[in-house]
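Give me the fold.
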Amino acid sequence: MRIAAGSAWTSELSRGPRSTSSPRLIEVVSTFFATVALATVVAAPIVIEQTTDGSRPGAAANGTTAPATSAPPGRELMFAGYGGVPYTYPSDVSVTKTGLHDFTAKNVAWDGKPFVNPIYYGARIVHFGGSRIGTMLDFTHSKTLARLDEEAAFTGTLNGAPAPERATLRDIFRRLEASHGHNMLTLNGLLRLPSFSLKLQPYVGLGAGVSLPHSEVQFANADKRTYEYQVAGFVGQALFGIELRTSRMSYFLEYKFTFAPYEMPLSERDGTLLPFDLWRQFRDWLSGEEPPGGRASTTFASHQGIFGLGIRSAPLATP
């Protein structure tokens, strides 16, 4: 399988100075979103639960604060954030450029580094209309960084010559990763399973969407790199989780499997923000021109374990 133009080459080259404004901007934006997600996870349950406890009917009249009770599943809208830990299977990485490259690196291993900035995080909106069936818009920010110090087997042609049978990846790539996002945006269908109690609600889901990685790819001897957000292809996911419900909050543990075939154009340019980068990619596609660095492809198949919390819009349950 071919590695999408999302492998990232972000190292600075010794051949000359490179502007660091774009990487710094992406670092700032990534840190901001990660900080907001963490603040929501930590602060929201305290604020919401204290607010709902103190606003129970009859609490003021009795001079006491009535404990909030768990609300049964029903018609509701939930906004949620989460963190987690991914594992991505090794995969083949292919690079093609007419007259120069047509090679594949076999079984490239990937690191997720979920607790290194930018951290692993996600956000979702969940809607149930009163039945067991619901919908979810889910955004996941994961990472995939090639282990460049490891060896890999190669086939095909590299720089117009036969590729070495085996080589250390760092001898071929200066950078190969999606460290500012193996980003996935999916629309999912959810099914609530028979529950153990009002407070514990298991569920399953299945969905599909689009991969929006920040592609960072650069050859070891190259002056230019691809360093931008891109549409890399479709992604599918399947999930199973269990939700702990309180009056207005939901805490959830979840496992999900994602499958994302990547094919990314190696544009050999530094991007800025996602909307501008996607517009440039769309404009290049309309022109019909081949990307100057060729194309790269791979498939990211990942296990992900997540923990998060959500704020529900459903009315409080009556005691």
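Residues 97 and 294 are 4 Å apart (CA to CA).
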